[in-house]
Structure formats: C-alpha cells, structure tokens
Amino acid sequence: MYQQIADVIRSQIDTGQLAPGAKLPTEAELREEYGVSRETVRKALGLLVNEGLVVSARPQGHFVRRRQPMVFRPQAEFRERPYTPEMDAFVTEYSAEGREPRQEIEVAIVEPPADVAKRLRLEPGELVAVRKRVRYLDGEPFNTNDSYFPLSIVRDSEIMRPENITRGANEVLADLGYRQVRALDELYVRMPVPDEVHRLDLGPGTPVGVHLTTGFTEKGKPVRVAITTLPGDRHVVSYERRWEAPDGEA
C-alpha cells in the first residue's frame, strides 16, 4: 500500500499538480485519505525522500524538492581564461546565471590512489599534489573536483596554493613547460563511497556520475588527472560535438 501512495504522489509531482516547493498533505491527512497506519504513510514518504523527489523539513512537514540542476560542460575546460581578473571559471559562469557559487579548496601532498598513479604513469613512491574542491551553488554542495599533478613538476607553483587560480591550472602547467594538447575523458556512473556522501551531503540512494579526465602534453606525457563527482539528482551533463566533413566534401 505504501508503494501505491508513493506512486500517486510521484505522479502528481511529475504532472505538476504538486509544484516544486509545494507542501505535501500531512501524515494525518494521508492516513485518513487512504485508511492506513502511520507506519505505512511514513514508508511512502520515505520512499519519495530516497528518490530525491521530496524533502523532509520537520516540524513543517514534507515538500516537493526544488530542482535547478547544474549543467556540467566538460568541453568548458578548454575555454580561454581568465574570465575576470577576480574570479575563476566556475564562479564566473554561475554568477552570470544569477546563482551564488562558491568553492572550498584544499591542497595537499599525498601518495596517489592506485588509479591515479596508473594514469599519471608514476614510479613507486612518487608523490602527487592534489587540489580538492567542493563546489557550492546557492549554499548546496553540487560537486567535487579533485585534480592530481606529479609533485615533481608543480612544486612551488600556483597549483600549491589553496586559492582560486584565475587563469586556470592548465595555463600554469603550460608556463611550466607542460602544455596539455589532448585529454582522455572517462565517464562512470555508480553509487557513492562514504567520503563522497560526506563531502556532498548525499541522501540515501543517490547515485553519482564520475568524470575522469587525463591531460597529456604534445609528447604524450600525462600531467594531470581531474576527477569530478556529480550527484545524479543535481546535474545535467552537456557535451557539444562538431562533425568534420569527410575528405573531398565541402
């Protein structure tokens, strides 16, 4: 029965009968309407909360979740920088949309995870510098972006400072003699690990998309691995592709 109640409310949300921000009927009202126990009503509401459709705001009640997803554009990595002298790409782009972006940045020297060490082709024991960022929109953590660099090439550079790099880490690498000319993108969809749940304040049952990029120099040397973790209920991934005409065609 709780699934049937959830189906009805879900349908009302999908059709717009219950608009974003709308308050759901109270538990008492749902019990009376469907002739069920409090436990059944709570299981129905819990199911909708776990699906990310409804939020619980006790003692006020349950509300339809407001959704304003972030459009994640992997190709934006290659836009010219800086956008403004004071703000980096993320802050500039979403400020222009009328939202309130901010990010928390941590920098550390660590032993790389095995998958990062493999992609950077590091020797055993070689360390990396990692820039860990949690990006917020309107006060909500939207995604994380962790970039790993061989410590041997970024030591004493801007990359080691826990602050915005207005011109972008790619340009810093270029100045150091390691300009990236191509990147390999990998996309994974999975359930989050505990650290991701904590950093992104994820609700139960929320999957994540993981965009993993490895950047290479002209000589084929990998110099950066960037891992962006995107909660599935907060993002639209938008790729732009350009078709090249076959040889001989205009």
From TrEMBL:
Domain HTH gntR-type: 1-67
Organism of origin: Actinacidiphila acidipaludis
Keyword field: DNA-binding, Transcription, Transcription regulation
Protein name: GntR family transcriptional regulator
Record flagged with keyword Transcription: yes
Gene3D superfamilies: Chorismate lyase-like, Winged helix-like DNA-binding domain superfamily/Winged helix DNA-binding domain
UniProt xrefs under SUPFAM superfamilies: Chorismate lyase-like (SSF64288), Winged helix' DNA-binding domain (SSF46785)
PANTHER family noted in UniProt: GNTR-FAMILY TRANSCRIPTIONAL REGULATOR (PTHR44846:SF17), MANNOSYL-D-GLYCERATE TRANSPORT/METABOLISM SYSTEM REPRESSOR MNGR-RELATED (PTHR44846)
Tree of life domain: Bacteria
